[in-house]
Amino acid sequence: MTQPLQQAIAEVQLRIGNACARSGRDRNDVNVIAVTKYVSLERTREALQSGLTHVGENRWQDAKDKWEHIGAYGHGTWHFIGHLQTNKVKDVIGKFHYVHSLDRLSLAEEIQKKAAKLGLVIPCFVQLNVSGEDTKFGLPPRELFVFLKQIAEFPNIEAVGLMTMAPHEENAELTRPVFRELRRLRDEANERMAYGKPLTHLSMGMSNDFEIAIEEGATWIRLGSVLVGKDG
Fold this sequence. Notes:
CATH class: Alpha Beta
Oligomer: single chain
Helix content: 25-40%
Radius of gyration: 17 Å
Number of helices: 8
Shape: globular
Distance between the termini: 8 Å
């Protein structure tokens, strides 16, 4: 059963604060995305009315109704956090403020084309498959630096950081090496100036492992079940 939203928000905020304290981080450096893919339009609206300002969705088909009733009226900052098919770029760009799953050149080309047509610059995270799992999307880490140089040529894309998903572990501590490696790759990319300007953000950490992600440097965490719950 989904718990009252204000209670869930308070508990999550306490856990974020404690993780920041443990790792000597400023709480203001950690942004929360409420992942609403498993909840209703009404619950999504309630989340925004409760002070959550960032909404994350994985698929346009599932997000469409929510966006048309909420996002189209200027409510919330919308993040596309799932695998983005090139043929869905036309639906997503112009509606979602951030794309967290840029992982191939063909997708970058489609985003550039659509964003240029709309006169927009789209903040994107480069998604890396740090864990190497076959079931996960993302660019292989060894291709990161070349890819950053390629997308630096697209004026309507702004790479703001890196994103990854860790394996789902019962013991969240086991996810730490994945998050640590994403941070290392971000730092190395900046040292090499692979993109031409600094990548500042790390989008990593979900309901089962966000405290570990914060301790390892996450600046955006993507929270669904622990925050807004799950219908059904």
